[in-house]
Write a structure and sequence with these properties.
Layout lengths: L2 H25 L3 E2 L23 H7 L1 H9 L9 H7 L21 E7 L6 E5 L5 H5 L4 H5 E2 L2 E4 L10 E3 L6 H8 E7 L2 E6 H7 L8 H5 L2 E5 L6 E5 L22 E6 L4 E3 L6 E7 L14 E10 L4 E14 L5 E5 L7 E6 L7 E12 L3 H6 L9 E14 L1
Parallel strand pairs: 5-6, 12-19
Antiparallel strand pairs: 1-2, 2-3, 4-5, 7-8, 9-10, 11-13, 13-17, 14-15, 14-18, 15-16, 18-19
This protein binds heme C (HEC) (5 copies).
Length: about 400
């Protein structure tokens, strides 16, 4: 190649580089900092002074009862849950899904520093050099609620702990729970977050009297740390719906409903109607029943069988929300029971044949429908519901 040719080629390359640089400048997307509350994690936490680990088992060395209880809590399963794992693998699930399920920066493999053009589907990530894979498995672990500013936070302090403790009652109040348990957002036309346990509680009769912690972290008296004497303490098993996440583990359960069958007689005349009423009251929950995840529902089954075990009458009632997900997510129905609300279901089949019969009333509490479970490829062993009430009544129909 001649000198001139080399010069020209050089110029061409330079021009190309310059053009590339300029056009890159022009199209380089703007990175918008994270602004909304669920876009942000709880900042990275160091191990508090005086102890040598952040994980639940480490806290459990000195707080064995809190640790054993927490292990069966749904919070401990918030990351490993099969349904959650199935959902976060979908392209439609944005990055911030994990911020309520593994909210500490320590638990996340990447650090999200902003969003390209503010688009939640284009997060700008960098590797988290301090990522703690084991802590990630623990989901909503002790540190999520109890560590801020690199110290243990508590509602009070005995002065006997080896770790630094900061007294921050406002950070361990119902606001902590509501931060995660109240979310209304439309992410895409088909993807919405819709759970309002916090709002239901604030608007209801328990606000100012009993909060989330009073009902879900019941007071007890026992040793808070081994060898440090018996005192006021809070149970950490987090009873809730009681529907397990895996076979072979039974979470603690609370029951919100009082269920009372009324009007059942042992004898009827041929031609009578059964006229059974089932009085269902949300007597014990501080929010609606069911609350939270819109997929939850209750079924109330009524069934009459004759002496040969043939079903002669059947009826099912439902309490829960109904949604359409396509083409746009839309709530179609919501008959969830508000606190203290009462509902009466009736079952009145005509009794037109003599004989002895059994009436069965069965109530089941559901995490999701079988179709939703199939949609997420959850195997048959994924528990979808539990029975919470069953009673059988014998009666006779005479001439
Ligand atoms: C080496 C033992 C030890 C470890 C490890 C430990 N604690 Fe403690 N902690 C204690 C003792 C002792 C007390 C005081 C108990 C008492 O006075 O009844 C305490 C008290 C507390 C309190 C009440 C506030 C206070 O200071 O009295 C909280 C909350 C707490 N610990 C949380 C944790 C958490 C969360 C972890 C894990 C990140 C943890 N602790 C790890 C020993 C320990
Ligand atoms: C979802 C949040 C949450 C998680 C997770 C959690 N705690 Fe707590 N913990 C609380 C609240 C709330 C209180 C205090 C309530 C109060 O005093 O009103 C508390 C109180 C405590 C206390 C003080 C004694 C008592 O029972 O009142 C200790 C000790 C403690 N927790 C240890 C732990 C340990 C150990 C873990 C993990 C194995 C853990 N906590 C997980 C919310 C949490
Ligand atoms: C960091 C977010 C976060 C915080 C803080 C939090 N939760 Fe949760 N909670 C969750 C998630 C996520 C689940 C669901 C886990 C799953 O189903 O795998 C859950 C589950 C529950 C359940 C069980 C639901 C069931 O199926 O039975 C109860 C009860 C509950 N939380 C109460 C509370 C209370 C009370 C507080 C406050 C002390 C609290 N939570 C604080 C995120 C949080
Ligand atoms: C007056 C007591 C009470 C208060 C206050 C209360 N809960 Fe509950 N909660 C219950 C009972 C009872 C259930 C069980 C309902 C059922 O399934 O029958 C429950 C169930 C739940 C569930 C499981 C979902 C379900 O439908 O079963 C979650 C999550 C929950 N509560 C969170 C909270 C949060 C967050 C707060 C505070 C904003 C709170 N609760 C306040 C009593 C209470
Ligand atoms: C604002 C906090 C928050 C965010 C963000 C969040 N979740 Fe959750 N998630 C929760 C809470 C709280 C529960 C428990 C609700 C209940 O039990 O009432 C939950 C429960 C779940 C469950 C279990 C449902 C069940 O019936 O057991 C799945 C699966 C889930 N979330 C998936 C996701 C996905 C996917 C995203 C992102 C699109 C996401 N979550 C974002 C707070 C959050």
């Amino acid at each position: 190649m001649s000198k001139k040719a080399i010069f020209l080629t050089g110029m061409a390359i330079l021009t190309l580089l310059l053009f590339g640089f300029l056009s890159n400048q022009a199209t380089k997307p703007e990175i918008i900092p994270l602004s909304k509350k669920w876009e942000k994690t709880i900042p990275f936490q160091e191990i508090p002074k005086g102890i040598s680990g952040l994980d639940a088992a480490h806290c459990g060395i000195c707080h064995p009862k809190h640790y054993e209880e927490w292990k069966i809590s749904t919070h401990a399963h918030a990351w490993r849950d099969k349904q959650f794992q199935a959902e976060i693998k979908k392209e439609t699930s944005p990055f911030m899904c994990i911020n309520c399920h593994i909210p500490l920066q320590n638990q996340q493999a990447e650090i999200v520093i902003g969003l390209e053009e503010g688009d939640i589907y284009r997060p700008v990530r960098k590797k988290n050099p301090k990522f703690d894979r084991e802590l990630q498995q623990e989901g909503i672990t002790c540190a999520v609620c109890h560590i801020r500013n690199n110290a243990i936070i508590s509602t009070s302090k005995s002065g006997k702990a080896p770790h630094q403790t900061l007294v921050r009652p406002n950070l361990l109040s119902e606001e902590l729970c509501i931060h995660c348990h109240n979310a209304v957002a439309t992410i895409t036309p088909q993807l919405v977050c819709s759970f309002e346990t916090g709002t239901e509680w604030k608007r209801g009769p328990y606000s100012g009297k009993k909060n989330c912690i009073n009902c879900h972290f019941k007071k007890t008296v026992r040793e808070n740390a081994t060898g440090f004497g018996v005192k006021t303490s809070h149970l950490h098993s987090l009873p809730g719906s009681g529907i397990p996440k895996e076979l072979g583990y039974q979470p603690d359960m609370l029951n919100g409903l009082s269920i009372q069958p009324e009007g059942i007689k042992d004898r009827y005349k041929k031609g009578d109607s059964l006229n059974v009423r089932l009085k269902v009251t949300n007597e014990f929950a501080g929010h609606k029943v069911p609350t939270g995840d819109p997929e939850r529902f209750f079924l109330f089954h009524f069934l009459i069988r004759n002496e040969k075990d043939d079903t002669i009458a059947i009826k099912t009632e439902r309490i829960g929300e109904k949604w359409q997900w396509y083409p746009v997510a839309k709530k179609l129905e919501d008959n969830n029971l508000s606190p203290e609300e009462e509902r009466i279901f009736t079952f009145s089949p005509l009794l037109d044949k003599r004989g002895r019969y059994t009436l069965s009333i069965l109530v089941t509490k559901h995490r999701m429908t079988a179709e939703a479970a199939n949609f997420n490829h959850l195997d048959e062993n994924y528990p979808k519901f539990i029975p919470i009430f069953e009673e059988n009544f014998e009666f006779e129909v005479q001439n």
